[in-house]
What does this fold into?
Amino acid sequence: MRVFGKINIIGLDNGYGNIKTANGIFPASVTRCEAEPAHAQDVLVYDGKYYVIGAGHREFTLDKVGNQDHYLLTLAGIGQELWCNQLTTAAVHLAVGLPLTWVGDQRERFRAYLSQNRHVDFNWRGIDYHVDLVGVDVYAQGYSAVIPELRKFTGANMLCDIGNGTMNIMTIQDRRAVMDQCFTEKYGTYQCMLRAREALTQRFGRTVPDAIIDEVLRNGDADIGRDYVDTIREAAAGYAAEIMRRLREHEYDPQTMRLWIVGGGGCLLRHFGEFDRDRVTIIDNIHANAEGYEYLAERRLRREGIAG
It folds into this structure.
């Protein structure tokens, strides 16, 4: 969170796998409960209803405003960031993102969706929060994450933001985005999870919990049988190879371009990909998009002379 006068700028990376703020992360799923859950810790209470956050997997959709899930997840993200900064009452300016090729068409709808209440009261993890929403900015995922590194983007570069649901690709020439060379594909890390599940089923007639598969994908290993680890690793290597193939389809040339990887898929390429490590930079900071949104929002507020 950045403080600009009396305004608290909160960046939210609204992914399909996780919600990331500058200081926190939690799974991006919402389960409504008819009564107060007895044991769940990540509970959001809003408009008299109870929601468990992060208890399952949310389906990929091409539009983030089709139901209330993203709004509820945004409230949880605001609560998470205010808790980190020891606030319960705040004027909040949201800074969020959309996939590169969706920003133009969906920006205003997403802004209106998140702005549906100018004042909102809710309870997150047992603490009451009272928020005045004073503004919403919507930026491009991926590009926002590399703003602090942009001075290094001389010559020809390709940026690839691999999230849970989508892979966003952008060509950047001498620090400037080439807008007609931006692409969004439904080929995020969840596709690798599905590939690993199928491989385990085919080979052993069973699978393992997603948390175990995720541990192998993130760390390259887990405390399970070696045959299971090897099968997951083979599936991940195939996914990583497919990522590189798709980048080449979008005119990535490893001899003349530098490649920058952001998002949760970076660890997959690090462990399982084959590429020239001298010409590929993997940004491990999973909060980079959220931090970039905050930076861009604060810069805009200062530039336009908006009172903080």
